[in-house]
Amino acid sequence: MTARVLVPIAESCEELETVTIVDLLRRAGIDVTIAALEPGPVTMSRGVVILPDAELEDVIDHEYDMLVLPGGMPGAEHLNNDARIIALIQKMAAANRYTAAICAAPMALASAGVLQGKQATSFPAFHDKLTAGGAALSADAVACDGKVITSRGPGTAMDFALQLIESLLGKEQRDAVEAPLQRP
């Protein structure tokens, strides 16, 4: 059975993070759905326009193994302020499924209450939101604590995406995706 991942996006999310996550997960054979909060194409933080696979409303009730939130501002704030996203994070956590976020987006995990007692990281400007949500800050580029995975920002997006693959499919599949990328 193929792993299924939902990647919600909003206006002004970080495109480098979004595309890196989606690209590497799909290279691993994972079924990824990019879902926009609102209908239509989404203009990302640097002006790149992404055509989502679906609107969030149409896919929110589907079953997923992992929810991944890209960062970027104010995109991550839009995700954090959307009651559907907060409820989905809580539903995924209650079902013992993966919740993951990068850059500014871990603030939504904090808002949903899933960082309580967890090691987590984010873009440094958002550390206070993580600690307010009960997280213990990690110095790692990618922090994994149970079914919660967080990362710092655009520069860590590839490491983050590879960790998502490893968490879902194992180290062998991660290595199979990573080898042809020719990382140093």
Task: Give a quick rundown of the structure.
This protein is an alpha/beta fold and 184 residues long.
How is this structure best described in words?
The protein is an alpha/beta fold. It has one domain (4-173): Class I glutamine amidotransferase (GATase) domain (Rossmann fold), CATH 3.40.50. Helices cover 37% and strands 21% of the residues. The protein contains eight helices and eleven strands. It has helices at 15-27, 56-59, 75-80, 83-94, 106-111, 127-132, 157-169, 171-178, and strands at residues 4-9, 31-36, 42-43, 49-50, 54-55, 66-69, 98-102, 119-120, 136-137, 142-145, 148-151. The strands form three sheets. Strands 5-2-1-6-7-11-10 form a seven-stranded mixed beta sheet, sandwiched between helices. A two-stranded antiparallel sheet has the order 3-4. Strand 1, helix 1 and strand 2 (31-36) form a beta-alpha-beta unit. Helix 1 runs parallel beside helix 7 (157-169) and helix 7 (157-169) packs antiparallel against helix 8. The longest helix is centred in the first third of the chain and has 13 residues, at 15-27. The relative contact order is 0.17. The mean pLDDT is 97. Residues 4-166 form the DJ-1/PfpI domain. InterPro entries: Class_I_gatase-like, DJ-1, DJ-1/PfpI, Prot/Nucl_acid_deglycase. GO terms for molecular function: peptidase activity. One of its GO terms (biological process) is proteolysis. Keywords: Hydrolase, Protease, Repeat.
